[in-house]
Each structure stands twice: as C-alpha cells, then as structure tokens.
Amino acid sequence: MSGQKIKNIALSSDGSAVRIVDQTLLPGQLRYIELRDREGMYEAIKALRVRGAPAIGIFAAYGVYVLARSYGQADFFARLDADCDWLISCRPTAVNLARQVNRMRELAHAMEGAAIPAIVDALGREARAIHDEDVAMCRAISEAGLSLLRPGDTVLTHCNAGPLATSEYGTGLGPLLLAAERGVDIRAYVDETRPLLQGARLTAWELMNAGVDCTLICDNMAALAMREGRIQAVLAGCDRMAANGDAANKIGTSGAAIIAAHYGVPVYILLPSSTIDMACPTGADIPIEERDGEEIRSLWYAQPMAPAGVKCWDPAFDVTDHSLITAIVTEKGVIYPPYDVNLQKLFG
Ligand code: MRU
Questions:
Q1: Which atom of ligand 1 is nearest to the CA of 170?
Q2: Which of 2, 37, 296, 306 has the smallest count of CB within 10 Å of its CB?
C-alpha cells in the first residue's frame, strides 16, 4: 500500500462543485466525483458516496455554499431555506448533517440585508472553517484515544470512522493511524460491518494504506475473538450522542459493546463535539434511519442469497447504552461516567 493521504472532500478549484471520493467504489477504484446541483448532492449522501457523520456535515456545508452561488437577489433566502431542508432530509441519524447545514443557514440569515456576494463569500469561509475545525478535532481525539492504549494492544473496529468518514485522522481509527506514524505497535480486528461492509471495504483499506496490521473478521466473530483474549479494546465512532452518553452508531456497535462488557473489554466511543446532541436527552430520542432491504437480500451477491421477496428489516444504526461505554473521547479529552453530568459540564 502507498501510505498516500486522501483528500476525501474539497471544493473544486473554481468553487462551482464539491469534490469527493466516491466511497461506494472503494476499495476497487479511487475515483473523485464532483457534485454541483441539489439532486446530485442528495443522491451522493443517500447512496453513501460520501458517508460518516462528520464527513456528511462538511460535505453539506460546502454544498450549501456551492448552491448559494447560483441564487438570485430576489429568491436568495427562499432557495437557501428550501435547499437546506432538502439536504437535511437526506439522512436522519447523524446530527452533524443538520447541525452544519443549519450553521450555514443561520450565518446567512444573520447577514440579511447585506449584498448577496458578501453573504456567499461568508458562506464559503464558514464551510472552510467547519472543515478546518474537524481536522483539528480529529487530531485531538486521536491523541486522546491513543493515550488509552498500550503498545502491543489489539483493538476491534466497527464500521468506518477513519479519514474517509471525517476529514483527516478520523475518530475511531485516529489512534491507530497516529500509532502507525509513530511506530507504535497497535493492531486491529476489523468487523466487516454488514450489510454495507464499511469495515471490509473502507476501514481495512485505510488501515492497510497506513501500514496498520489489521485482520478482517465477520461481525459475528467478535465474541470468539474477545473470549480468546485477542482484543484489548473496542474503538468506535458515533453518529449522534445523546446528553446521557447513549451513542448511536453503525448497526452492530451495540452488539459489540454488549459482548465486550461480558468479557471485560473496555469500549471507547470517539467523536467530535459536533456529534453530541445535548438537545436529545437519551438514545430513545435519536431517529434511526431504515434502509432498503435489498442491501441485505441481494447486494454484493452474484445471485441473491435470500428468497426473492423475503421481508427484511434494515436499520442502519443502533444505540449503545451509556452504561456499556467505558469512556468517551472528544477533542476535549477523555470523559468518564457519570456522562450526563460530565457532558453537561463540557458541552451544556
Ligand atoms: O452509514 P454510515 O457509513 O454513514 O455510518 C457511519 C458510522 O456509523 C460511523 O461509525 C460514524 O459516522 C462515525 S464516523 C467518524
């Protein structure tokens, strides 16, 4: 592997499009695509061409800027509001999407009365700031996460919480990437993460690219790996954390955490503050995206591996109860229970 650093989200050089790595094509092809209209942006988020809570927030912020460049004076705010609502409606669970789109929208509304080019310029700067903030947060999260590990440890990962899902180091994968850069031996078992295989397709690719020793397993192999003492910690990202520390993340995360609790393996949830939703009291208040059952029935198979028409239930996320989380890692450092009290102190 090359060790190359990928710029997964950027503005095109003339600012007329958002340029992303099409994550649906990885690991087979590293292809960049440019999105310049609202339908294309919506489809890119929905189809997971761009995915991961922080990444979709950054992408949508640039998207708002790109779209705003084409609005006229008369309909500027009507179109801005309609496009913001449209982008937010795309995926419900990751709070970053709504948070960053609303941040852009509020900035524009706060400038109502100013010249449109000045508002558009300010939107461009805001999108860039959202992106830069994520880079800094991921770096700090990665440092804090690494402090929880010892040389020789092997961790379990679920889904993909690396640079592709964020901006640079990632959250859940950040400690592993930093360790590799510093020559510290931290290894990983990588859950393949059914049904969309973010672990197999993206995490394994990113870790191998960075020179991290990783071993791919099916999701249902984690219990044996922990029973045999092969795993010293579970590291996962998050799509929305409630005020009590309940953490929505890719479907299967809570299963891994329950198994880890059984075997006494610590569970660390790594996330930027942009993923914490203090307005959401508990995990029961987090909306869970449901996706097309075809992802279970037929996707990836040369021929369907389930009877045609069989009913499927395809929730994309689950909620890990705060009682199963050993520590939460944010850009402000490592947070221990009681999470309701400690999150309120830091982010209330
Ligand atoms: O459906 P996805 O692939 O967007 O889900 C992503 C995850 O669940 C990630 O673990 C989460 O967004 C954290 S990314 C730093």
A1: 15
A2: 2
Query: What residue ranges do the domains of the chain occupy?
Result: 9-138, 145-347
Res. 199: pLDDT tops 50: yes
Distance 46 CA to ligand 1 centre (A): 13
**Residue 95 pLDDT > 80, yes or no?**
yes
Angle at 29 between CA 24 and CA 65, to 5 degrees: 55
- Concerning whether 239 is annotated as a catalytic residue, the answer is yes
Question: What distance in angstroms lies between residue 250's CA and the mean position of ligand 1's atoms?
Answer: 6
Separation of CA 166 and ligand 1 centre (Å): 9
The CATH class that applies to domain 145-347 reads alpha beta
Q: For residue 177, give Cα distances in angstroms to 99, 169, 275, 287, 346.
A: 27, 7, 21, 31, 27
pLDDT score of 298 more than 90:
yes
Kindly list the distances between the CA atom of residue 77 and the CA atoms of 31, 84, 86, 326, 346, in Å, as whole numbers in the listed order. Answer: 34, 10, 14, 45, 34
pTM: 0.97
- Which atom of ligand 1 is the closest one to the Cα of 94? 12
Catalytic option among 134, 239, 246, 277: 239
**Residue 5's pLDDT is what?**
75
Select from 1.20.120.420, 1.20.120.550, 1.20.1250.20, 3.20.20.140 the CATH code of 9-138: 1.20.120.420
Structure confidence at residue 229 (pLDDT) = 98
Tell me phi and psi for residue 249, to 5 degrees.
Answer: -150, 180
Mutation pick for ligand 1 pocket among 176, 239, 277 (CB with most ligand atoms within 8 Å): 239
For 313-332, the pLDDT digits (tens) are 999 999 999 999 999 999 99
**Beta strand pairing call for 18-21 and 32-35:** antiparallel
pLDDT in tens, 105-120: 999 999 999 999 999 9
The residue contributing the CA closest to ligand 1 atom 15 is 161
